[in-house]
Write a structure and sequence with these properties.
alpha+beta; four-stranded mixed beta sheet; 14% strand
Length: 177
């Protein structure tokens, strides 16, 4: 017996015979198509969400953040192997007291716990020469180039001295006066 006939027989309907309860057959067909439609919609929704999530991850990538800051902000990347890293916590405390100086110098601070980053962000850090298993601080100039690299927490005064010595910063300070 072909499969379709077997399905009709199990449902109590002989192949080619009219349905005993026409309303019940229509209801079962409608129910089947609704279930099929809902399953299809769920698959499409899941696919769209995955694509949107991937697109958002790419748009919010570290590399895109640095590119968006180019010529507008300096970027300070604080990289650590764990959120509880003692050097990371010390660096945060040092910078907390220097918020006004960071804002004055157009510094965008990004704290990065490397093991929790997306693979694309870890790859970008490796291209910048960051060791992903140790604490490191990178100062990127407005041109996107690495201007300073430290493996211990940096005092704001030392950071500001580096920034204030940059030609672009000197021009900015002249314009303010």
């Amino acid at each position: 017996m072909p499969q379709s006939e077997g399905q009709f027989a199990r449902a109590g309907v002989a192949a080619g015979a009219p349905c005993r309860d026409g309303l019940r057959c229509h209801f079962m067909l409608i129910r089947f198509f609704c279930l099929l439609l809902m399953t299809s919609l769920a698959l499409v929704t899941t696919s769209v969400r995955a694509q949107t999530s991937n697109q958002n991850a790419l748009e919010n990538s570290l590399e895109n953040t640095v590119k968006a800051a180019r010529w507008r902000q300096r970027v300070l990347l604080i990289c650590a192997p764990a959120a509880t890293d003692a050097q990371l916590l010390a660096q945060r405390a040092l910078l907390q007291a220097a918020q006004a100086g960071l804002a004055e110098r157009d510094v965008l601070v990004r704290t990065l716990v490397v093991p929790g980053l997306a693979a694309t962000d870890r790859a970008y850090l490796r291209r910048l020469g960051v060791k992903t298993d140790a604490f490191q601080v990178l100062l990127l100039g407005k041109d996107g180039g690495v201007k300073r690299r430290d493996t211990v927490p940096v005092a704001p005064a030392a950071l500001f001295a580096t920034i204030d010595g940059m030609p672009m910063r000197r021009q900015e300070m002249k314009r303010v006066k």
